[in-house]
Structures are given as C-alpha cells and as structure tokens.
Predict the structure.
Amino acid sequence: MDFGLVLPTGARESKDVDLAIIGGGPAGLSAGIYAKRAGLEAIIIDKGNAGGLAEEAPYVENYLGFIGIKGEDLVKEFKEHAMNYVEISERNEVEEIKREGGLFVIKAEKGEYKTKAIIFATGTTHKVLGVPGEKELFGKGVSYCVTCDGYFYRGKKVAVIGGGNSGAIAAIYLKDIGVEPVVLEYMPRFMCEKAYENIIKERNIPYYTNVQVTSIEGKDKVEKVVYKDRNTGETKEVEVEGVFVYVGLIPISDLAKNLGVKTDEKGYIKVDLKMRTNVPKVYAAGDVTGYAGQIIIAAGQGAMAALSAYEDLMLH
Amino acid sequence: MGYIQDKDKKYLKGEFDKNLKEDVYILVFVGDNCQYCSVASAISQEVAELHPKIHFEEHTIGDELSKEYGLEHAPTVVITDKDKYGGRIRYVGLPSGYEFSSMIEDIIDVSRRMAEVSQEVLEKLMKIDKPILIQIFVTPTCPYCPRAVRTSHRFAILNKNITGEMVEALEFPEWADKWKVMSVPHIVINEDVQFIGAYPDEQYIEYVVEAYEKMR
Ligand SMILES: Cc1cc2nc3c(=O)[nH]c(=O)nc-3n(C[C@H](O)[C@H](O)[C@H](O)COP(=O)(O)OP(=O)(O)OC[C@H]3O[C@@H](n4cnc5c(N)ncnc54)[C@H](O)[C@@H]3O)c2cc1C
C-alpha cells in the first residue's frame, strides 16, 4: 500500500491580517500565494485539510503540467507551495464574521482574526439525492466519498448515482481498486467529458441512462437501488452493496450571505470578472462562484481575487 | 532511501524547531505476523531523527508497557510524554496518508503539553471523570478523518480519563466489520455510542458526554 505521507501546516495563533482567505482548496491556496507575493499579510483558514474537494479527486488528468496525477498528490504540491508563503490554519472552522469599525472580525474554532478584506474560497458540499433510504442508510452503504470509502467494497458491486464528471471519475476509480461499479444517469446520454466516456466504455463499466432513482433499499445495509426507467416508465432495480452519490454540489455561501453578499438563486456567490462581490473588500473564488467546477479555474480565480484585494487595499 | 522525502524532512524540522518544548516519545509496539510493523517503526524512527527532543522506542505487544497501556494490536503507535499521557494518544495500524499529519500534530501538542479547545468545550470536557475510550476508524485516503482523530487526541491531552485510538480500518477488517464500518471517519465511544463524520468540537463533545452519561 502506498498512501504517501501528508504533512500538517502548523499554524495555530489568532492574528490580525490584511486579507483572510476562508477555505484552503485550490482557489484559496492560489489566492494565498498571490496575496503574499503582492505584499499583503494573509492567512488561509480551512475547517478541514487544506486541499479541499480536490483531495477527493482520485485522478486528475486535466490540470496543466500534469498528464495524470492523484488529487491527493496534486494538492500536496499546491499546499507545500503555498506554505512557503502564507500561514495556513487547518481544522479551524470559521463560525461567524462580524464587522467592527472598518474591519471584519472572523470567529473561528481556534481563534479570532481581524482583517481588512476577505476572500470566500469555501467551495461546495455534496448534494444529497433526497430519495427514501438515502439518509437512513448513510454509513451503511450510502457514501459521498469514493477515496474515503471505496476500499470497503472491493470485490463487491456498487451503484454510482450521477454520471457527470465526478460520478464518472468515481466509477473509474472504483473499477481500478477492484470494485464493480454501475453508473446510473438521469439524462438520456453520457454527461461526462468524452475522455471519461471512452475509459468507461473501454473498461466495460455499465452506464445506464434515463434512470430516475426512486429509492435506496436494504434492511441494515444497502441491498438495492430502485429506479424508474424514464424510457419505458418501468420500475427496475439493481442489487448492490454500496451506493456512491455524485449528483452535484451545493455552494457553501451562508457566511458570505450574512455579510450581505449577493448570490444567485442556487446560492453561488455573484462576482464580477475581477472576483469582487457586491460588498466592498469581499471577494469570492473557486467553486463557490459556480463557474466550471475545475481545479485550474478555481486556482485562476483565486489568483484574480487576491490581485483585486491588493489593488483595493494598497492602491486606492 | 527513507520513507520521508528530503524536502518534507526539511519542512518538518522547521516545524519541530519552532514548536517543540518538552521531550516526546514515539513508542511503536510491534508483534508477530505484522505486515506494517517494520514500516511503522521505520517512519517513526525517521521522524525522531529530525529533532533531539523526539525519542523513538520499539516495544512488543505483550510486554509490560503494552499491558500497562492496554494495547493488543500491532502495530500500535503511541505518542506520549511517558507520564501523564501514558498510552492514551494512539494509532492502531500505520499512521500513513492523511494520518501522518495527525501524528505530527500530536507530537507538537504532546511536546507543548497542551491543546486548544474553546472554553465551552473545555468545561464539558473537564466534567468527564470516568474512563472514556474514543475509537476512530479511518482509511489513509480519507481527507476528513484526521479532524476526527485529532479531536479525540486533543481531548486526551486535556483530560486524563480520555483515550483516543485511531484504528486503520483496512488493516483490521474484522474489527471494522464488528462495528459495520462502511463510511469513515466512523467513531465508536466506549464501544457504545457511535457516529459517522468529522464534526466540530462542539458536536463531538456531545457524543462523548452522551457516552459518559450512559455509564452512570
Ligand atoms: C470525485 C471528484 C473528482 C474530481 N476530479 C476533478 C478533476 O479531475 N479535475 C478537476 O479540475 N477538478 C476535479 N474535481 C473538482 C475539484 O475538486 C474542484 O473544482 C476544486 O476542488 C474547487 O476548488 P475550490 O478551492 O473552489 O473549493 P474546494 O476545493 O471545495 O475547497 C473549499 C475549502 O473551503 C473549506 N471551507 C468551507 N467552509 C469553511 C468554513 N466555514 N471555515 C473554514 N473552511 C471552510 C473547505 O473545508 C474546503 O477545504 C473533482 C471533484 C470530485 C468530487
């Protein structure tokens, strides 16, 4: 088994900064590097590990400079690069943000941070499907993270619900570690990149289209997924021991909303081309803005947001 | 060629120089037919070599100390001051992948002889006056797991009645099966109260309190 060795980032104190970056995924890490290099005192605060959702990406084939790399390894590069410049406080959830004079006061699990500006790089969380059995059987076969739980199903059959990019990658990863996945997709066609579609076909991973999952069933653990075939209207089922749900993402934007930041109807933070929100000195970057949901875009937006913060704080 | 890359060693050295205060011991308990014992020892030894305040010792499951600490599985890695923390901060199975970062953070906290929690959580924690065993089933590829492991270890540093034990579910499949572990982190407190997920301290402590109250 080769799982590598992941390093912690060390930071622990409360402090005052020019720029607080909430979220240490690709967007936040990139923002941190740009902020510090521009001359801003900055900190990145993350409730989990820095790295964000990209840590769940089993294998990344579309980040510039890497033909193929595990999400975990790519993130390690990001994190170690950022750690050269900026303090990263991990396992430190931001709970509340208040205004005090012209400053923001960020209350987090491990301390308080006064800051002149904030970048929300809070990303997204997995959407639940909302069918009977999903909640009841969570942890009993229903999961939202293949890298975390995939190994428990080696030699077993599982369903991946959702055939978009994440679902497709999840299925390919499962197949690679010796699980037998079947992908269940609502739409009538492949919903992932052509590159993933090709791999799915090559490796003979079943990909059912026009599937509307209606329930996940089982007594003490998952036994089957019941669905409606949208083509014929028939009710069908697949016997599986596990279900991985990849039906989309929900933006984490409540903290921003509380500051008066505008979002769209789904909760994605509205930003202009320079990543500014409607609230002065508040920026957003990465998946929380609702753009492509890709690491490279998140990193690019993070850089842009930091440069805008620099412009607003130092040049005006 | 060691397990830890040179550039990582350099970083760790810096962290240790900055943060270490008192002596810390990494005790690795090995046993027979143990696939990962030699790796556990080798990695721990490499870490210990990075700073004079970190000491590595190899012990055997079945010896005096393992009995005193109540350890039964190999490898078990204990991070301790060899005094008040005893064998209460521990890893059953290899602390690799994301758990390597938990181990490094433990070394720093144990050396500082302290850990941070909020006042509210500390008050609840201090009321625990009977032994509580928190077991956290993890996989090395689970990015959310270290949070759950570290919470138990921070609690263990602050309260001598608490033991935090990470269990590597892939290395101990039967054990994981006993608790029907299918999603990690899966936390079992006093072999009774269970929950799944990496929660903030405020919620975590409620489960600990629940287990404690069930003992009375
Ligand atoms: C299975 C899977 C496979 C994928 N594969 C690819 C791929 O091959 N290529 C690709 O480009 N993309 C891939 N992605 C998408 C990619 O992971 C995301 O686009 C990227 O991680 C977004 O970065 P981000 O920084 O915007 O947000 P995130 O990575 O989601 O990071 C947000 C961070 O904010 C933190 N946070 C949230 N709220 C708080 C709070 N209150 N306090 C403190 N911290 C907080 C979170 O802990 C998190 O670490 C994949 C995703 C999945 C799920």
In short: Residues 11 and 235 of chain A are 54 Å apart (CA to CA). Helices of chain A lie at 26-38, 71-83, 146-149, 165-176, 194-202, 254-258, 295-315.
